[in-house]
Amino acid sequence: MLDRLKKRRVKQNKDSLNHILELTQTINQGQTIDDLLYEYKRILLDELKIEKVLVYNLFNRSWEVILSAGVDEEEINKIDVEKNLLVFDDIENLTFSSDESLAGFDSVIPLRSRDKIIGYVLIGDAEDREGISPTIKHLVFIQIVSNIIVVFIENKRMQDVMLEQEAFKREMQLASKIQNQLIPNAKELPSHKRLSIQTVYLPHLGVGGDYYDFIQLSKNTIGFCVADVSGKGIAAAILMSNFQAILRTFFTNRVSPVKLISLLNKRVNSSANNEKFITMFLGKYNLRTRKLTYVNAGHLPPLLYNPNKNQLISLDKGCIGLGMLDHIMGIEVGKVKIEKKSKLIAFTDGLIELEKGDEITNKLSFLKKTLSSEKDLADNFQSFRDFIAENYNRKTIFDDISLIGLEFY
Question: Considering the entire predicted model, what is its pTM?
C-alpha cells in the first residue's frame, strides 16, 4: 500500500515537472500571451481536472480578468478585487469564507513578482473519485505554474511597451529630422550687407507647432514670418508643415498682405477643421526703401528697438489668428520706416512663459531689457540662448520656442 502511494506521488511529481517543462518550452519558443494562457488552461482543466478557474492580473494599475473557465459572468461581476481579494496575502481555503462573492470557489492563490502581488487565481472543483479535491491535491503546483504565467505576462507586456516606446521614439526622431529640414538653417537665410539675421528653434517634444521662415521675394525684398499652432506634438507639427507649404506657395512680392492673410486663413480652416488655429507675424522688408510692412495675426507682438531714439515699440497691428473664423474682417497692415542700427525680434510664447510651481511667469521684461542694450544682435541672441539653456535645466520651459532677430544696417 505504501509502495503504491509512493509510486503515485512520484508519478504526480513527474507529471508536474513535465507540465512546468511544457510551459517553459512554450515561453522559450516566443509564443504569445494567448498561446501561453491556452496551455495553462489545458493543464488545469484537462490534466488536473480543475472545474473552475478565474485569473486576475494587475496591469496599468487596474485589475483585469486574463482567464476565465467554468465561471459565469454573474460570478465575475460579483467580485471586486480590491474589496474581496486584496485581503489575501497567502493561499487561502475559501470553504468557510463568509464572503458571498467568493462562494463558488474553493481556494484563492495570490501571485507575486518582485515581492508585490500582481495577480490572483480563484479555483473550484468537485471531489474526484478518491474523495480528494484536485484543488487541494495540486494547490502548490497550481501556485507555481500560475506564478510562471503572470510573471511571463508582466515581462511580455513590459517588453511590448518598451518596443512600442522605442518604435515611437524612432518615429519621433524621423519626424523631428523632417521638420527641422523645413526650418531654414543659417546657410539658407538671406544674406545682405544691410541685414543680419539670428534664429533659435527648439521644439519642446522633438516636433512641434512653431515655425519661422525667411523668403527672398525679390532682389531688394525679404519676407519673413514666425508662427505658432495651438497645441504641441505631432498634430501641431503636421498642421505646421502643411502651413509652411501653403505659405511658400502664396507668399510672393506681388500679393498684398491683406490678400495673403485671407488666403492663408482659408487654407488653415480647411486643414485644421476648426480644431486648431495659428497665430502668426508676417513681415516684408524692402532693403532699398527701408520700409517694413507687416501683419500681426493674433501673435505676440514682436519688439523693434531704435537705438538712435532709445525707443522700443511693439508691432501689434493686424488681425485675429488664422483659423479662428471663416473670414477675417478688418485686417490692419502695419508700416514702419526702419532706421539704421535698429533691431527686431519676433518670438513664440514658449520663450517668455515659464512654469514656476503651479504658476506661469512672464519673462517679456527680460527680452525688452536685453534688446534695448547697446550690444549688437549677435550678443543679444547669446544672452537669449543662455537664458533658454538655464531654464531648460530648471525644467521651467514647457512649450516650443522659436525666435528670430533682424539687425538693420
Answer: 0.64
